[in-house]
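Exercise 7. Given the components listed, write out the predicted structure of the assembled complex. Treat all entries as one system.
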Amino acid sequence: MVLAQLGGSISRAIQQMSNATIIDEKALNECLNEITRALLQADVQFKLVKDMQTNIKKIVNLDDLAAGHNKRRIIQQAIFNELCKMLDPGKPSFTPKKGKTSVVMFVGLQGSGKTTTCTKYAYYHQKKGWKPALVCADTFRAGAFDQLKQNATKAKIPFYGSYMESDPVKIAEEGVERFKKENCDLIIVDTSGRHKQEAALFEEMRQVSEATKPDLVIFVMDSSIGQAAFDQAQAFKQSVSVGAVIITKMDGHARGGGALSAVAATKSPVIFIGTGEHMDEFEVFDVKPFVSRLLGMGDLSGFMDKIQEVVPMDQQPELLQMLSEGTFTLRIMYEQFQNLLKMGPIGQVFSMLPGFSSELMPKGREKESQAKIKRYMTMMDSMTNEELDSTNPKLMNESRVMRIARGCGRPIRDVMEMLDEYKRLAKVWSKMKGLKIPKKGEMSALSRNMNA
Ligand code: GDP
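Answer.
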């Protein structure tokens, strides 16, 4: 989960407010101050934060809310809406279509993650059945072609470049021509970036653009610059017709929120975010599901997409069936733990569910999390079938807990911790009750509906 720290602080502030006996002006102010602090720490521009605070206060008029109104929900909804407004970057100028040739040119400063992102973008589409190809028109940075070649080879994506030719325009032109002849539907041109926004860089971008006539220019930027992203995005926008933006390194930087909101403020549409060095650490950026996850409210559309992507086809119906029933037994937890350990990526699936992965498998602490999961499984090995299949929370009485602790040789408090984890996950799972199971081919339609 990206920006976990910011999301955690905001959800905690809302939670604390909900715990107050009466939600009055004071409780609301405290909550909003906490959120303000968290956003400023993430380097979001002061004016944006101030506006958000004012708007929420305008919308949530505590005096007008009749008794019985769920104030917490209303406030949470107002915060959700305002965050969406703050981060909403609008739509890209062009969206490539599968089966129709599109040329997409990538621009950005050196080190922003441009070359890596080109391959991620190609790989993302390839997995969805596209025929992408990569052209390396970066003749400025030594090693750029090798890097692209290596990544492309790993992902089995055709590529074009040259060690000898020093004219980026010529390479770009030749590469695009070749892949058009080969009927590739997504031709991605990686251009060179320099250290600074300088005239030579912008001139080269213009020339490559003129030669290749891209349908879409994607500007790649590093999130660690925080709100300085505003000026950078503006400068690139003024030099080439940037149609979409990808923000990288959202995994490692507390300032990611600042970068996202700053880019949104320039009305440059962010379409993807990079969340790690690996090829598949790349996410579609869609503002509502993103904010939903940020606030720990889950992202059901992302969840359905991920199930399709990472759960083997033959296991998808079973998993969905169990989810739709909403019943979560200890045996289901055991089996999902087995999946987590065996398949790794299923962790990505559960990160889309509220409460699942961020606490159970925090990013960067995978080893510890795996040890914890194995420990829980050892305890469950000492349970009877009745206990594993029960849906009665009262069944696990003191004497059963003591017996399990003895059986697995662990202290009683460890068994209690495991049962608490079970209760927490069961609560999350129960939210999926009533999930309509899609027939073949209906998955994406369903995910759209769920998010509406
Ligand atoms: P370029 O000079 O803009 O082409 O940048 P590169 O693609 O060579 O990337 C520069 C560095 O950033 C490399 O070490 C990449 O692995 C790394 N990088 C790129 N995207 C991400 C990301 O989303 N997260 C993290 N953590 N690292 C990234």
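Discussion: The chain has 21 helices and eight strands. Residues 439-452 have pLDDT under 50 and may be disordered.
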